[in-house]
TrEMBL record:
Keyword set includes Calcium: no
Keyword Amino-acid biosynthesis belongs to the record: yes
Gene3D superfamilies according to UniProt: Leucine Dehydrogenase, chain A, domain 1, NAD(P)-binding Rossmann-like Domain
UniProt KW keywords: Amino-acid biosynthesis, Aromatic amino acid biosynthesis, NADP, Oxidoreductase
CDD domains: NAD_bind_Shikimate_DH
GO CC list: cytosol
Designated name of the protein: shikimate dehydrogenase (NADP(+))
Catalysed reaction, written as an equation: shikimate + NADP(+) = 3-dehydroshikimate + NADPH + H(+)
Domain Quinate/shikimate 5-dehydrogenase/glutamyl-tRNA reductase: 130-203
Source species: Ensifer oleiphilus
Source lineage: Bacteria, Pseudomonadati, Pseudomonadota, Alphaproteobacteria, Hyphomicrobiales
Domain SDH C-terminal residue range list: 254-279
One Pfam assignment: Shikimate_dh_N
Highest rank taxon of the organism: Bacteria
Gene Ontology biological-process entries: aromatic amino acid family biosynthetic process; chorismate biosynthetic process; shikimate metabolic process
Length: 286
């Protein structure tokens, strides 16, 4: 019996209303494929009657029970940061953590969301023009997608959000990190789409609870690429409309899988098989 099997790995996910999450299945299936005794649990604030204010106790409890790490999701990605000892460069730049590794008595915060989107984009839209993109949404997902696409060399990004102040904050923070790029918050979506190569959608619109399109359909043209972050459902109204109009598209599944790939690597120290994890995700969502 290997040392890994003698000492089972345990990880978990902290968030609110996470019972439908596919993250445990993806992690444990990949662990089993690699011969690991790997358990992954949900720490659902809603189920426990807890809130973000309980994070210190939940982190202590997870550490005490020997978990190797935790994934962090809404509404805790920013609130968890004061309780960590160290941050990766990405987590510090984004001001958000989605993965905490417990290592030698220290809590190290990472953000694999940005890498997850970038890797999905590279694989799914390899020939996408990166001169000018429009992004809808400046919340947690929008920070990660903006950082990712700018890291890939995008030269101009126009950000839209229902809360103008939030769009301006994102544009300002990204401008400081990517001074070579032209990044701005705006209100004239029609003009921006006319000038753009593509669209990044980073709002909840398209989920079952928020049906519909996030922008007028006639602003989408065949020359645009369209990248989605929503993955429940994989085929959102936006993607269906974009495909009908002849656009190259990217669904939100890749970002969900590749952030899990990054977290698996951090938790286990093993290199995951990304293709296998993607195939498993596709089977779970078929």
């Amino acid at each position: 019996m290997t040392e890994t099997l003698l000492k089972p790995l345990k990880a978990g996910l902290i968030g609110a209303g996470i019972q439908a999450s596919l993250t445990p299945a993806m992690h444990m299936r990949e662990g089993a494929a690699q011969g690991l005794a790997y358990e992954y649990e949900l720490i659902d604030l809603s189920q426990r009657g807890a809130g973000p204010e309980d994070l210190p106790q939940l982190l202590d409890e997870a550490e005490r029970r020997g978990l190797c790490g935790l994934n962090i999701t809404h509404p805790c990605k920013q609130l968890v940061m004061p309780f960590l000892d160290e941050l990766s460069d990405e987590a510090r730049d984004l001001g958000a953590v989605n993965t905490v590794v417990f290592q030698a008595g220290r809590r190290i915060g990472h953000n694999t969301d940005c890498w997850g989107f970038a890797e999905s984009f590279r694989r799914g839209l390899p020939d996408a023009a990166l001169s000018h993109a429009v992004q809808l949404g400046a919340g947690g997902a929008g920070v990660a997608t903006a950082y990712a696409i700018l890291s890939m060399g995008l030269t101009s990004l126009t950000v839209f959000d229902r809360e103008m102040e939030r769009a301006e904050t994102l544009a300002s923070s990204m401008s400081a990190l990517f001074p070579q790029a032209n990044i701005a918050a705006a209100t004239d979506l029609a003009s921006a789409m006319q000038a753009a190569d593509g669209l990044i959608h980073a709002t909840p619109t398209g989920m079952a609870k928020y049906p519909g399109l996030p922008l007028p359909a006639d602003l989408i043209e065949a020359r645009h690429w369209v990248a989605e972050v929503v993955y429940f459902p994989l085929e959102t109204a936006l993607l269906a409309e974009a495909r009908q109009r002849g656009c190259s598209t990217l669904d939100g599944g890749g970002m969900a899988v590749f952030q899990a790939v990054g977290a698996f690597r951090l938790f286990t120290g093993r290199e995951p098989d990304a293709t296998r994890m993607l195939a498993h995700f596709n089977a779970l969502t078929a």
